[in-house]
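Here is one chain, start to finish.
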Amino acid sequence: MYRVNEIFYSLQGEGRHTGRAAVFVRFSGCNLRCPFCDTAHDSFRQMSAADIVQAIATYPARFVVLTGGEPALQADEPLTDALHAAGYTIAIETNGTHTLPKGIDWVTLSPKAAPVVLRRCNELKLLFLSPSFRPDTQGIDADYYYLQPCDTGDARRNRLIIEAATAYVLQHPEWRLSLQTHKLAGFR
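Its structure:
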């Protein structure tokens, strides 16, 4: 059984798949307590892999994003097998502190202030925390490298962070800017 906080249908708002229709399965719980976390994920209902597949089958997209909290605390091969058997492509958004089950098709790694065990991902997404922030890949190999300005809740401070992140990408074109388009456009 899995502790599922919510399942919802929307567009991916960040990174390489921005704008892609996706079913999000948000797991409850995280092993980190980041002060900038913008997701409430503590409540949950117990669901089996079959329950999850049945719940997401009501949506037309065949792209499912495992998110959280930290989905790697719960996602396992029986779940990825069930999702693949139902015809889904599986993405995960992880902090990288736990190994992942086999069967994940796309890995978005967003490390925080904790040791990372994953050394390879499809996209590495670092939160650009302040105008003085300088990214460190920690030796992680990725197909794509993204800097995402941290939303501080303060419009003036956010503008400074976005400007600094933009300037950094212009000077370091191996990075790409990832804005939280779901917040900018007002969708979930």
